[in-house]
Structures are given as C-alpha cells and as structure tokens.
Amino acid sequence: MTADQIRAHIEPIRDEFAESRSLVLPALKYAQTEKGHLTRDDLDAVAEATGFSPAYVESVASFYDRLYLEPTGTRVVSVCVTLSCMLRGADEVWEHLCEREGLSHHGGTSEDGRVTIQEAQCLGYCDHAPCIQVDADETLGPLTPEAASQLMDDLHVAPAPEEFWR
Amino acid sequence: MPILNSVYRHREAGHVLRDLADYRAVGGFSALVASVSDMEADDLLYVFHRSGLRGRGGAGFPMGRKASFLPKDAKLAKYVVCNADESEPGTFKDREIIEMNPFQLVEGVALAGYAIGAERGYIYIRGEYEYQARILDAAIRAAREAGYLGKNILRSNFSFDITLYRGAGAYICGEETGLLESLEGKRGQPRLKPPFPAVAGLYSSPTLINNVETLSALPPIVTKGADWYAALGPEKSPGTKIFSISGHVQRPGNYEVVLGETTIRELIYEHAGGLRDGRRVKAIWVGGSSVPVLGEQHLDTPLDYESLNAVGTFLGSGGCIVMDDSGCIVRATLRLASFYRHESCGKCTPCREGTTWMERILQRIVDGQGRMEDLELLESLFGRISGKVLCALADGAVAPVASALKMFRDDFVAAIEQGGTPRPEPMWPATPAQAR
Ligand SMILES: Cc1cc2nc3c(=O)[nH]c(=O)nc-3n(C[C@H](O)[C@H](O)[C@H](O)COP(=O)(O)O)c2cc1C
Ligand code: SF4
Ligand code: FES
C-alpha cells in the first residue's frame, strides 16, 4: 500500500490523539488490509505516512500476533486451542484440519495458497467451543471436525475478500 | 435461584438493543442527560463511590475510589480508557455487552468522562473482535449524530468524544499499562508501577481505566441510584456480575447474577444446565484461567469476591471454566501453562523463562517422560516467578499450576508413574454450527 493511501486513512483521525505515535497501529492494520500481510514496502509506507522510522514501525508490527510479516494464505483460519475449546474437541478439530490440508500439526498454508491455518488462544467465544475464526471478522462454533472441514471446502473456492481484516 | 438481569439493559429487556431508538426506549441516555444538565461532576463521582461498584476486569478494585485518585487540579488533559481487550480464557461477557447493547457502554464511558473532567475516552478492543468493533463503531457514530457525544453535549458545557482503538492480537494488552503502551503506538509491554495510570497514564496524563462491564454498570447506577445498587448482594461485593461459563456444561453462556446470592453449584447446575449424566465436577477455574483452581468440595461457595477469596481463589473476570471427571487435570494445567508461555510479553526474565519451563515440564509429564523430581522442580519455580516481575500475568500463570499441583497431586504422580496421560474424549457439541 502507498504512503498516500495510508495518509488518507489516518489523517481524519489524527486529531483524536495527543501524540501521533498512536497512529502507527491503525496505520499498520490498515496497510495490511490490502494484501493480508505486510511487506517491506508496506512498512516503509507506514513509516513515511506516520513520520516514524521503518525500524520503529517494524518493531511495533513484530509484537502483534495479528500483524503478519510473512505472506499468508488468502484466508487465515485461527483454531482456538485454549482450555474451554480443548474440553470440547479443539485438538481433534485442529488435527483434522491440518491433516486435511496436508500439513503437519504445526499448521501452515495449504498447497494452493488459499488458506493458512494457525492455532489461536482464547477467542472469547468459549460458549461456542470448539470455535474457529476466519480472518478477524467471522467466528464460528461449535464445530465438529466434519463441520470445520466443510467450512474449509467453502474457503478453498470462495472469492478473496476486498479487504483483509485479520 | 435468584437471577436478576437488572443492570445490563439488553438482559432486562430480553432483546438486542443495537438501535439507538431501542436503547432510548428502555431508559437509555437518561442518566447522561440528567448528569450533564443538573449534576456536578463531583456529585456524580460520589454516586459511583457510594454504589460500591467494583472493577469487573479482574482485580475488583472499587471503581469510584479509583476515579477519585485522579488529581483534581491537574493541568494536563484527563482520559477515560475502556478496556475491551477481553482475552482472559473463559471470558466472553464484554463481547455480549458490545454485541447486544453497545450504547450502554458508550453512555457509561461518557458518564465516567463527565465525572472526572475528561474530554476524550478511548475504547481499546481486541483485534479478534472485529465484528464487535464494527457494531461499537456504528453505535459511537449514532450517539454522536444524536448529540450524546461531541461538542457541548445536550447544550451543556461538557464536550466529550470517544475513539475506538483496535488491538492486533496480544493478551498482554489487556493489562492496563500494556494497553496504554499499545494505545500510544508502541509494543504492548507493561510499565513499572507506580506511577499508576490515575496519576500518569495515557500520554503521561491522569487516566481512568475500567473494564466494559464496569463502565456499562454506570448508567443504571445513576438512574436507579447508588443505594439501589449498593443494596444488591453483600456489602463489600454489591451489584450483579455477568459470569461466562464454559467447558463441560450443557448450556455454556453468560448469566447475570447478584453477587453473593448464587453458589458455584447453582451457576453450574441451574443456570448452565449441569453436566452430562453420570458426570461429576472435577475442576473449576471460576474467575478466568489466571486463578487457583477449585474442586468439587467448593461447589457451595457463593459467587462474590470475599467468599471466593476465603476458599483461596479469585472472582477475577468471572469466566468460569468447568471440567468434569472425564477430563485430565494434568493436560488441562499444561494447556493453561502453554497459554501463558505464549502470551508472556518477554520483558521480565522470570516470567519469560519461568512460563517456558512450566510448559516444558508439564509437557514431558503428559508425554510420559516425567520424573518424580519434576514436581519439586515445578514447585521451586513458583517462588522464583511471582513477585519478581512487572505485571500480574506471571502470577496468573503460576496460580493455576501451583493450585492444581497442590489439590490434585495424586493425578500428577499417577501421570508420572503410568508413563503419561492419555488424551480424554472431548465433550462434543450436541448441535454443531452449520458452516455457513
Ligand atoms: C495479564 C493481564 C490481562 C488482563 N486482561 C484484561 C482484559 O482483557 N480486560 C480487562 O478489563 N482487564 C484486564 N486486566 C486487568 C486490567 O489490568 C485492569 O485491572 C482493568 O482493566 C481495570 O478495570 P476494572 O477496574 O474496571 O476491572 C488484565 C490484567 C492482566 C495482569
Ligand atoms: S510479568 Fe511477564 S507479561 Fe508481565 S511484563 Fe513481565 S514478562 Fe511481560
Ligand atoms: S477457549 Fe476457545 S474461545 Fe475461549
């Protein structure tokens, strides 16, 4: 994403913060909506738009799990493996999805590049355990391994979202 | 079975209040109107104080007292910050409030702002709640259009607005100073306290930080009165609290109860539908995962701050995780240890290394590589982590492990003697969600 596009996003909210450093995280999140991850150029553009150094911007970005500094699949599927979900079958769902996508039990990106599956910590949907989240805006549960598999079928053919909020 | 949905208006009304008109129809914004038109800020602060409302984010600190710590004569701007990071395992009550009743939170933040003399509030919401963030964003805009936020609210001298700030996946940003760092555009690593946020918080200015459930309780406290709220439940733990309950129960969900009037047993068996036939309670983490675990012998403990402290645990966030006797306490404890290892921000060596070691030792016990000395090794770690770090995450990591080892030592010994613990069959959902 270009520095101008990022500026257009953060300028309207600049006045809401006493220090412009607060714009770094919103800028990073917005920059990520273009490709679903942040490239070197994106970090440079965020640096230019916010007025902080690229090294600083990267040090912030690297702190947060949901900012991706490496390419991901078209959709990122987060499988909650924390206690409440574990008690309701999260490990079984997780392993089933990994095997289905031909991945080790560490997760990763499917061969066709369509989905990345990753373990997640409590998503705040423990009443829907076991649950999984697609990017950051859709959380589903309770799921059986079969229902989760069906969701993956859909994700492999679904069009890419216009913006990646993850 | 006293159940009282009297504080959170969507519960009282029995339906979603996502439209401003619906929220107003149940008395919404009348507290803000009344306060800004004919109440002094200090009097409002005193109402909060007298209500006895305690923080619902985990620590349970009296809300009014915390608000009164903000210096009155400060020349710096003051801020209200709402903690909507909700990432404590087992906790999903703030999600419900935001999804179903976002205006009550908006009104609560504005009331707190008026009481402390702030002109801006921030709501910091976890990145994973993007769906909820959109609902809240729409509510903030609608409130602004209707004149409840912005310049000279309802033609008073009070100007106040709210900024929604999205996190990006880090449990530690729920810790108040980690949150402030993140909101300042930095890595979300906690600060050394003191100074406390009330004195030097956001941008080193006096800052009031409260949880979503805490701030959402303010509008009804103002309309129905501090005395009404203070009279609910025990003197030191007044009011209602939303408990999130999950794990091996038939009806996981949120239940709002009057503190002190409901026992853990009633929460599990009456509200949450009990366990599966033939199952008994094995372990309960009643206040989220950062608390000492309880067992079946504690079922008759009333749910309030003091009663839970008396049996050695904390009310915490009210995220009650229940495991029945089909579950394995060693595996459950390992799962929590893994959570804290993953979420430790790494700033303090005892926390970063200690959480890594707790996970490693528990993992080898589960895998059948444990030795009896491992139990002493684990115990020797606890004192080397607690109290030697910047924030309470480390204590939260130690609590479930240390307490499980104490209460269920036989299970750990058996796991070592028997060469590991098999993975138990999970409790499958009765009706799985349809994938779209
Ligand atoms: C590791 C850690 C995580 C926390 N996470 C949250 C959280 O997600 N939400 C929250 O309201 N408080 C959380 N807290 C507590 C906050 O630090 C703070 O006490 C709270 O937001 C104050 O609001 P209250 O007084 O209304 O409870 C956390 C504390 C720690 C140590
Ligand atoms: S105790 Fe742990 S989480 Fe808290 S600041 Fe230190 S390293 Fe970070
Ligand atoms: S434990 Fe999975 S959503 Fe909370």
Question: Mind explaining what this structure looks like?
Answer:
The complex is a heterodimer of chains A (166) and B (436). Helix content of chain A is 41%, strand content 12%. With 166 residues, chain A is of the alpha+beta class. In chain A, strand 4 and strand 5 form a beta hairpin. The radius of gyration of chain A is 17 Å and the shape is elongated. Chain B is built from 19 helices and eight strands. In chain B, strand 2, helix 8 and strand 3 (161-166) form a beta-alpha-beta unit. At the A-B interface, helix 2, helix 5, helix 6, strand 5 and helix 7 of A face helix 8, strand 3, strand 5, strand 8 and helix 15 of B. The complex binds flavin mononucleotide (FMN), iron/sulfur cluster and FE2/S2 (inorganic) cluster (FES). Residues 172, 189-190, 344-348, 351-352, 389-391, 393-394 of chain B line the site of iron/sulfur cluster.
List the helices and strands and how they pair.
The complex is a heterodimer of chains A (166) and B (436).
Chain A: H1 3-10, H2 24-35, H3 40-50, H4 54-61, E1 75-80, H5 83-87, H6 90-100, E2 108-109, E3 115-120, E4 132-134, E5 138-140, H7 145-157
Parallel strand pairs in A: 1-3
Antiparallel strand pairs in A: 1-4, 2-3, 4-5
Chain B: H1 9-13, H2 20-25, H3 30-38, H4 41-51, H5 63-68, E1 79-84, H6 93-100, H7 102-116, E2 120-125, H8 130-145, E3 161-166, H9 176-183, E4 207-211, H10 212-216, H11 218-224, H12 226-230, E5 240-247, E6 253-258, H13 264-271, E7 281-285, H14 305-310, E8 319-324, H15 329-343, H16 349-366, H17 373-385, H18 393-407, H19 409-417
The structure holds flavin mononucleotide, iron/sulfur cluster (SF4) and FE2/S2 (inorganic) cluster.
